[in-house]
Every structure is written in C-alpha cells, then in structure tokens.
Amino acid sequence: MERARDNCAGEENGFYYHDDAQVEAMQRRVDAAAPLGDDPYTIFRLPAAVRERHRDLYEPKVVSVGPYYHGRAGLGAAQQHKWRLLRDFLSRGKKAAAGLGAYLRAAREVEADARRCYAEGFGLGADEFAELLELDGCFLLEFFLKKSEGQLAAPGGAKWAWHHMYHDVLLLDNQIPFFVAFAGDLPSSRTIRPPGDKTIHHLLHLHYECNVRNPAADNDKGRNTIGDANGGASLAIWKQPAIPSPRSGEGTGRKGRLTSMIPPAAKMEEAGVTFKRKATPRDVFDASFRYGVLHMPAFVVDEGAKVLLANLVAFEQGGGRAARQQDGGNLVMGFVALVGSLVNSRRDLEVLRRYGIMRCMLADDDAVAYFMLDMTWLRT
Fold it and tell me: By its UniProt entry, which InterPro entries does this protein fall under (predicted)?
C-alpha cells in the first residue's frame, strides 16, 4: 500500500505534471468567470423544461433570429426569405449599398463581443456566426423599414406570416445584440431608436423600454418605438408595486399561483364593486380603485398578446443585466398578478367583457387557462 502511494506521487510517472496542469486549467476558468451580478450576458434562454411545456409561447413559429434556433426544421422558408430582404436592403442608398463585404467585415469586428452577450454557448464558428449576424441584422432592418413604408416583409406578403414573424422577433430566446443591427447612422436610425441615451440590449428590451417601463411619456412627444403589429402599444399593463414572493402557508391563493388580496371579477361584482373603462387613460398603467369602482383602460387579449406578455414577463424576471437595470419595479408581473386575480373563470371574463375592459379574441376556456398559467417560477 505504501509502495502504491509512492508510485502515485513520483515525478517520473508524470503525476505531478498532470496535477499541476489540471489545477492551472481550472484556475484559468475561475479567473475568467465574471463577478456575480457583473456578467456580460444580455441574451438568456428559458429553462428547457419551460420551453418544452409552452412551445407556443416561447419558440419561433416562422423565423429564427440569432444562434439558438438557427437551422431549426420548419423555419427554412423564412431563412430563404432573409436573403431576399438582404438584397433589398443592399439596394437602399449609399450607406446601405456599401456591399456585402463591408457589412461582413463589420460583423467580424463585433463577432466576439456579440458572442459574449449569450448566456449559453452554441456550435457556430467565428465565420459562420459573423455571417449570421450580417444576415439577421440586415433582415431586421429591412423588415421594419418595409413596415414603415407600408409593406409587409413576409414570404408572399402574407399578413398572417408577417404577424407571426413580428412576434417571433420579440421572443426572449430569439435575439441578436442590438448593437449589431441598430447602431450608427444606418437607414434604421429614423425608424427605430431607443429613448434618450438608454443602452438597449435587444429588440425585446427596446419594446420593454418604449411600451412598458416608459409608456406614452409626454403624450408620445418625441417617442420613437417599434410599436406593435398594428402600430401602437401591444398590451395594457398597469404599473404595480413589486410582487412579494408568497411565504409558505400564507395567503389563500391556489397552489403554485401568486397570492393576492384581489378577488375574481365576478365576486367583486357580487359584492357591489363596479368596473369602468377609462375613456382617456393617462397611460396604459392607469388603473385605480375609488368609491367601489375599479377604473381600468381597455385591453385586447389575442394570440399575439399571449406570446408577447409571456416573453415580457420572462425578460423582466430573468433578463440578466437589462432586467437588473430596470427601475420601475415588476411592471409586467404586476399585470400578471392583477389580471390573474381578476380572471379565474368564464364568468370573470364575461364581467370584464360586459364593461368594455377586456376584448378577448380567444376561446373563453383558453383565455382563463392562460391567465391561470403558472409563471411564478420567474419571480425574483
């Protein structure tokens, strides 16, 4: 036994060298790790279990953007369509007509920085990733430029395809860094610009800043936004205080849901509470309760709103640096808590519909199931 230990510790068999090399390799990884709360990641992936359980909410239906869904089966038609939009983009003016080579060189220059934005690795080499950045970046530019010109940049000009593409490019996992496509004085500058000097990390972050955190500021004076598929704010989301995590055994809510002091709409009506739609709300957060009347702006719930809301919640609650920099509280989670409390049954939907507050474009059972969807895993 003693002889075996001597052999393992002997320099002649290389064990000292092997041990030292392994320690050095591990130390390099330790040194390279960013301090907690100071990581470079701005584009995250939802946990696989969540994506697989709710593919209709979190995964692209028509078009991929960035590396996470690159090459996925079923998205090939839009991938080919990107090359047509790249051709159209390159035909625009002097700056856009710099040529493929100039844009590829620019993509190569930011490739390493862009790669560091992703919280999970992906199997693309530097050249392949640079090409993806050029193609997807120019696709996004041309996609929104055409919309500003009254065109639908979808295969065949199909309206349904355009709407799916629009919501696909606002998925949390389906992003490229904002600085890749929307930087400098490219033709996009007049169409899509972040508010003030705010650093924007990706398109979903831009939507959050323009339509959620700073809604309709100053009656929209000087406000530039990508808007929604119809050109306006996509969701009515009310500003609520941060939602506390429920403690074990406290509250009366259903297991797995946020506890709340707000009863369902039908029970509120039975207790004498009335609802009133605000005709001219100050902004999309303008909800108030006075003298037995709950005043709320009207909002629409459809398939697109379902997807966008779920991804805004995911961004707000787990979006890395961008989410940590928010100073407005858990705005979207506040909306989830409010509507999730009001809507527990088809009767609740009918109450909100009757007062002109909710316009539901879904089957009642689907709408109820959606607002009872367990998003509490995202809570901080």
Answer: DUF247_pln
What pLDDT is stored for residue 227 in this prediction?
33
Q: Which residues of 327-344 are buried (b: 16+ CB within 10 A; e: fewer)?
A: ebebbbbbbbbbbbbbbb
Which parts of 155-292 are beta strand (E)? Answer: 274-277, 288-290
Which H or E run contains 112? Answer: helix 100-116
Provide, rounded to the nearest whole percent, the portion of the chain with pLDDT above 70: 69
- Which region among 99-103, 151-155, 375-379 has the lowest average model confidence (pLDDT)? 375-379
* Number of Cβ within a 10 Å radius of residue 319: 24
Measured in degrees and rounded to the nearest 5, phi and psi for residue 188 equal: -70, -20
Hunting for tokens 């709320």 — which residue is that?
296
DSSP 8-state code for residue 34: P
How many angstroms separate the Cα of 123 from the Cα of each of 51, 71, 127, 222? 20, 11, 12, 42
Whether the Cβ atoms of residue 281 and residue 262 lie closer than 8 Å to each other? no
Here the tokens at position 14 are 């290389």
Mean pLDDT of 277-292: 77
Q: Among all chains, which residue has been given the structure tokens 């990641």?
A: 41
CB 85 within 8 A of CB 143: yes
Alpha-carbon span 256 to 268, nearest angstrom: 23
CA angle 46, 139, 212 (to 5 degrees): 50
pLDDT in the model for residue 267:
94
Q: Where are the beta strands (DSSP E) in 145-268?
A: none
Say what the pLDDT of residue 281 is: 74
- Polymer length in residues for the chain: 380
Tokens for 80?
């080919």
246: left (phi over 0), alpha (psi -120 to 50) or beta: beta
Q: Is residue 218 over pLDDT 70?
A: no
Residue 140 in 3-state DSSP? helix
Only one residue has tokens 């527990």, namely: 344
Higher-scoring residue by pLDDT: 278, 334: 278
CA dist., res. 289 & res. 275, Å (int): 9
Looking at 42-99, list the stretches that DSSP marks H as alpha helix, in order from N- to C-terminal side.
48-53, 55-58, 76-90, 93-96
Q: In the predicted model, what is the mean pLDDT of the chain?
A: 76
- In this predicted structure, what is the pLDDT of residue 7? 47
| Two tokens, residue 89 | 């983009």
Q: What single letter denotes the amino acid at residue 178?
A: F
Task: Give the model's pLDDT for residue 78.
Answer: 93
